[in-house]
Amino acid sequence: MIVPSMTNLEVYNELVADLPKLKIRANTLMPKVVKGFRKERKFPAWQCYEYTHQESKNKYLLSFYAASVKNVEKPVVDYIGVTSDSAGRVIIKWETWLYRKDNTVDFIGTRAISYYCDHFFSRYRERVWPNVEMSANELVCRYFTRNKKVVPIKLNEDIQRRYKEYGEFAQYGMQVADGICFTNQGCEGDESTVGDRNGNFISAAWYYTIVSKNLLTDRQTDAISDGQIEYIKSHFFEPFKKALENEISKLPPQIRMRLPAFSNEQI
Questions:
Q1: Does the pTM exceed 0.85?
Q2: In this structure, are residues 145 and 128 in contact, taking their beta carbons and an 8 Å threshold?
């Protein structure tokens, strides 16, 4: 069972170990879920069920989502971990992120885990769904269904004036469809084991609040766009540029002279 004293890797391994039983439970619930979606008159639609793993005693939400009537027979299923700390309920998502080692262009799938506190979802309800009645569980399911695409953004004072007060790990925000999330992020373990099933490296993020798009000022919106471009350049463009320049340097001089210049403006 997940307890606060566990490392991020231990929590991740617990969740992964429970996944087969989660899938069995979801398949068992599917006829009931489909029957319920057939009665829906308004889409998108969600159904959410609580589940406690029999052996581990870990708690989960099983999320079922139908974007339209076409998806009623085969709704999207998602698995969401639930635990608690001294401040209340904590929602957990575990997944695989693309991780790039420094000074390389190689992206490797690595373990990643994200934690969302009660405060995060209180702000999500208040700022994104202020006039919509729904349970706390459906609110969580809606968030993960609507915000699957996540774009890291390097923070600055134009985006969040007091971000430095949240400590050294509050360097990045996460842009999602519903707004921008403010996070603490870090890594644990030996970086050289990235991609190794038996390695101990893991990325972790703690989501503490979200600001919806309609609450952002023009200055924040512009700064977020600049931060996104900066992140793309530093994590994708610059490594590729260095690798390309290295390969070009190996070519004969007469060929190198005929190649066009490669600059930051081309991104």
A1: no
A2: no
Listed in sequence order, the residues at least 6 apart from 58 whose beta carbon sits closer than 8 Å to its beta carbon are 1, 2, 14, 15, 18, 52, 81, 83
> Residue 139: which of 153, 152, 150, 128 has the closest Cα?
128
Contacts of 22 (CB under 8 A, 6+ apart): 51, 53, 60, 62, 79
Kindly report, residue by residue over 210-236, the tens digit of the pLDDT: 999 899 888 888 888 887 777 666 655
The number of beta carbons lying within 10 Å of the beta carbon of residue 236 is: 14
Q: DSSP of 147-176, one letter per residue? A: ----EEEE--TTT-TTGGGG-TT--EEEEE
Taking alpha carbons only, the member of 166, 206, 215 closest to residue 85 is 206
Say whether pLDDT at 266 is over 50.
Answer: no
103, 240 in Cβ contact below 8 A? Answer: no
What is the biggest distance separating any 2 CA atoms in the chain, rounded to whole angstroms?
Answer: 71
Closest-CA residue to 187 (of 171, 202, 172, 169): 202
Q: Which of 138, 189, 142, 181 is nearest to 163 (CA)?
A: 181
- Beta-strand ranges (E) seen in the chain are 45-52, 59-66, 76-85, 88-100, 107-117, 151-154, 172-176, 179-188, 202-212
* Unique residue bearing structure tokens 């915000």: 147
Contacts of 147 by beta carbon, 8 Å cutoff, 6+ apart: 176, 177, 178
The token pair at 78 is 């998602």
